[in-house]
Amino acid sequence: MSEEVKHFTATGMIRNEKGDFLLHKHQKLGIWLPPGGHVEPNEEPQDTVVREVLEETGLECKVVSCAYPFKTRISHSSHVQSLPMPLAILKEFITDKKIGGHWHIDMVYLCELTMPNKQPYDEFRWVPFEELTKLNIPDDVVELASRVNECYQD
């Protein structure tokens, strides 16, 4: 029996004040995706998403914990720390011509920009929620965007 190859990744779902989502057309995959990337050795996933957003978009962000409505935070001690809760944890199959098919264990975080008026690098654009389905975009990204919108409803 062959063993599945898995990589840990972190993705940032970022929505602006108008309700648009920050996306780019992924060069290798040819689909529209939010910023994100591989978790480096000894890196925590919430730090990965902040680093990847900055590297890919030029924008600084912070992670918003999605623990509501359940109490998920464990009290800190000298041996235990609570990390921010992701919006979702997904197992995604990736077809890659160089390394072959493999899985991403993707921790998807809700992120907010620290300087919302700064513009991203040219390869990224703000896409209104209503236009997401007009793009070559995975269904799960549209579903995640819908969940993000729910977080911002009054």
Automatic annotation (TrEMBL):
UniProt keyword annotation of Hydrolase present: yes
GO MF annotation terms: hydrolase activity
Entry EC number(s): 3.-.-.-
Domain Nudix hydrolase: 5-150
Annotated keywords: Hydrolase
Source organism, top-level taxon: Bacteria
Similarity remark: Belongs to the Nudix hydrolase family.
Cofactors: Mg(2+)
Name of the protein in its database record: Mut/nudix family protein
Coiled coil: none
Top enzyme category: hydrolase
Organism per entry: Providencia heimbachae ATCC 35613
Alphabetical list of InterPro entries matching this protein: Nudix_hydrolase, NUDIX_hydrolase-like_dom_sf, NUDIX_hydrolase_CS, NUDIX_hydrolase_dom
